[in-house]
């Protein structure tokens, strides 16, 4: 069914708005994937704040103009499934990586983060990025480590004194 000019403009505007606010983009070829598997993928994408779109390549090129994802225009050939990560840069990569394990037909074509295009072989790098909560947890543990070490060091002085007094007491008891 043909898409009218107004509908095309609406699609371009919607994808452009999504791309402008997205943190990363993963493009995949989903030919041959069963419908029920794609439905499950879409459900999981909604849960992980990943926006999935299937858009014609000509419309996608127009929609991505002026965004930091314009760099992926050369990879747009054949059917493309766009996964925009909205809150966590690695969310779409993790989602597509897990989905590709169960579906051999699913093939990741390209990735883009901060205006830099990465090849499909870089999927693991993006997928292994920590989530916001994990990153904050790592940061807090790094910030907490010096204070913890200081307290342990300060506590060691009275502890050593107590152990020395206990050793003297044991020595005097043994001598008596």
Automatic annotation (TrEMBL):
One Pfam entry name: Ribosomal_L10
Entry's Gene Ontology molecular function annotations: large ribosomal subunit rRNA binding; structural constituent of ribosome
Biological-process GO terms, alphabetical: translation
Highest taxon of the lineage: Bacteria
Gene Ontology CC annotations of this record: large ribosomal subunit
Keyword rRNA-binding: yes
Keywords from the named record: Ribonucleoprotein, Ribosomal protein, RNA-binding, rRNA-binding
Homology family: Belongs to the universal ribosomal protein uL10 family.
PANTHER family the UniProt entry points to: 39S RIBOSOMAL PROTEIN L10, MITOCHONDRIAL
Subunit structure: Part of the ribosomal stalk of the 50S ribosomal subunit. The N-terminus interacts with L11 and the large rRNA to form the base of the stalk. The C-terminus forms an elongated spine to which L12 dimers bind in a sequential fashion forming a multimeric L10(L12)X complex.
Summary of the function given for this chain in its UniProt record: Forms part of the ribosomal stalk, playing a central role in the interaction of the ribosome with GTP-bound translation factors.
Annotated HAMAP family: Ribosomal_uL10
Protein name stated in the entry: Large ribosomal subunit protein uL10
Organism name: Halioglobus japonicus
Gene: rplJ
């Amino acid at each position: 069914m043909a898409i009218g000019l107004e509908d095309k403009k609406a699609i371009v505007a919607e994808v452009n708005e999504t791309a402008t606010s997205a943190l990363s983009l993963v493009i995949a070829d989903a030919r041959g994937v069963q419908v029920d598997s794609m439905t499950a993928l879409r459900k999981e994408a909604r849960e992980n704040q990943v926006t999935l779109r299937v858009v014609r390549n000509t419309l996608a090129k127009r929609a991505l103009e002026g965004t930091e994802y314009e760099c992926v225009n050369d990879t747009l050939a054949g059917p493309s499934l766009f996964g925009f990560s909205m809150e966590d840069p690695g969310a779409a990569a993790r989602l597509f990586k897990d989905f590709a394990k169960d579906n051999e037909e699913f093939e990741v074509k390209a990735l883009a983060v901060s205006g830099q295009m990465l090849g499909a072989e870089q999927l693991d790098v993006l997928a292994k990025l920590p989530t916001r909560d994990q990153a904050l947890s790592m940061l807090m543990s790094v910030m907490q480590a010096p204070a913890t070490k200081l307290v342990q060091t300060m506590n060691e002085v009275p502890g050593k004194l107590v152990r020395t007094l206990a050793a003297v007491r044991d020595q005097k008891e043994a001598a008596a």
